[in-house]
Amino acid sequence: MTIWTELTPAAFRLEYVDAAGVRTRTLRAGTSGTPAVVFLHGTSGHLEAFTRNIAAHAERYDCHAIDMLGHGYTGKPSRPYEIADYVEHLLAYLDAVGVERAHIVGESLGGWVGARAAIDHPARVASLQLLCAGGTIANPEVMDRIRTSTKQAVSGDDIALTRERLRLLMADEKNATEELVQVRHAIYHQPDFVANVDNLLSLQNMEIRERNLLRPDHLGRITQPTLIIWGRQNPFGEVPEAHRMHDAIPGSRLELFENCGHWPQHEQPDRYNPLSMAFLAKAAD
């Protein structure tokens, strides 16, 4: 099984969209005119994080998996990125493709961005999925792990460093497939990615992170249907963090995945996809 065979059941296209001047890579599948679902990856990630999910969702929805600002093959403005910058880019992308309102699926950093968009621009977000979402605490140990492992993989040519960085996300290292390792290694070693990595990691700086955190009173302003999914072996956040998020977001639903790390949608697609589809159907109603 490869990325391409995972995607093959759906008609899809990979293209670039001008999002307010930022050349943005997007993978699109499904039927235009159906409800839009936008998939947002995590820190130093890329749209391939969702290749095990696109085909299932494209049966019913207009799917968009994007490389976020400064990530993957999307444009990389030379400045430190804060959450407002990611939200601005997300909204610019929605405007560029003519989507007024979208269901947001956000993993890690993507969940942080999706939650902030739901709070500040509620008319643009129809529902919210927070998959091991970041942004509610500032843990120096976790921040250092993210920063150090990413910079080592970006600065070193040895693909083993990229493999180690990707395996860090998974409860079972076999889910960090060699194909994904090669995709990420190629991304990490683009000259503009190397030059931009500190901007991309700016939220691992304590001062910057603190002013971007989602506090309980912020989460309490989320009115959209919200599904929280958390891996019990998540290396970047313990289960109590998920419970606090659940307690703060009115009417939210929490699902804990056993034997799962930081990429539940990728590690357990057979569980995640039907759960997500049922949630989206209910949210749309």
UniProtKB/TrEMBL annotation:
<dbReference type="InterPro" id="IPR029058">
    <property type="entry name" value="AB_hydrolase_fold"/>
</dbReference>
<dbReference type="InterPro" id="IPR050266">
    <property type="entry name" value="AB_hydrolase_sf"/>
</dbReference>
<dbReference type="Pfam" id="PF00561">
    <property type="entry name" value="Abhydrolase_1"/>
</dbReference>
<keyword id="KW-0378">Hydrolase</keyword>
<feature type="domain" description="AB hydrolase-1">
    <location>
        <begin position="35"/>
        <end position="268"/>
    </location>
</feature>
<protein>
    <submittedName>
        <fullName>Alpha/beta hydrolase</fullName>
    </submittedName>
</protein>
<dbReference type="InterPro" id="IPR000073">
    <property type="entry name" value="AB_hydrolase_1"/>
</dbReference>
<dbReference type="GO" id="GO:0016787">
    <property type="term" value="F:hydrolase activity"/>
</dbReference>
<dbReference type="GO" id="GO:0016020">
    <property type="term" value="C:membrane"/>
</dbReference>
